[in-house]
Amino acid sequence: MDEEDQYNAEASGSQTAETPAVATASSLEAGEPRLSKNQQKKAARQARMAELKPLKRQAEKVRRQQRHHELSTGYAEGTLSAADKEIFEQRRAREREKRTAKRQEKLAEAEGVERNQTVWGGAVIMDLGFDELMTENEISSMDSQLSFAYSANRLSSLPFSAIIHSSSSVSISPRLYGRLVKRDIARWNRCHWNPDDVEAIAKQMKNEEGELPSGLKRGQELVYLSADSEEELTTLKENEVYIIGGLVDRNRHKMLCQNRAEKLGIRTARLPIGTYIGNMPTRKVLTVNQVFAILVEYNIRQDWKAAFEAVIPPRKFDDKKRKRTGGNWRYAEADGAAKDGQDEGEDSSDNGELGGSLPASKAPEPVQPAGDILMGSDEEAAFNAL
Asked: Catalytic positions, please?
């Protein structure tokens, strides 16, 4: 006799003696008609079935898991009968279809949100041609910063139309690109992965004939962001493509982005941090995702000062600088020295004014990669001179 039969027997036996009394009392109190014996038995049986239901469901789940394990093991070992093999393959096909349908549903939902966004016509190029100049930790940091930048653009109410990642190949950027591929970057919306370096892209942009790189338009001008530039950026234009150097170098490489742009004949410009943020005692060196977020914020606000304040951490505006002593932070008055102006342990990358966070409408606090890795080297000197 199984549990269900046992419960049914009990319901019709000793427990039915209690049930009528309870039912009769409750019925009399409620002024309802008394239940017949058959109705009382039926009610007791239904109550027992309700109690048994979760137990039966759990037992069925265990049975299915065991059956699945037997089928998968037998299929792998080739010991299944023809009938069981067919059953296993049919189940696997159904599971695959469910996963595909679920993935397509999520993509359709995301595309629906993005279709409602107003897209800004300008573009950004992430110059990833610095793989050989970075350590493994710096490569890891840059990988995270690029992910933050993508998220900032995806969640923005006014995203850039395209983010082009140059040097996206195992031959030029084997370590960084290898990490990015693991993030399933093919599904990053409005992101383009160009195997050519910035030099090749610049030549294609100057050529009036031939196919343009994906994400770029005819008539757009390249502008390499560098804190060492003599030109200060006053506004953003849709016919300009802003290049951000993707490098974390702990201050080893001076003037790298500026020299790179000059060699390629690309116009340079610096973000107007010194003009709008005068009370920033620490070095004006930012991460790649911070710089990108500043550009996104400016497009939304049309106000450089508000964009900087939305992205740059508030501690950077402190009139005292921090130093680490014996594992603890202490504050000291800023003396203007470039080396002391930086928090000890922060990385520098060669873009000075490069970085990103979520737009203010989504997240008022700036998004920071782990370790607060900083950008800059050639940009650092220029920022200190601002």
From this structure: 249
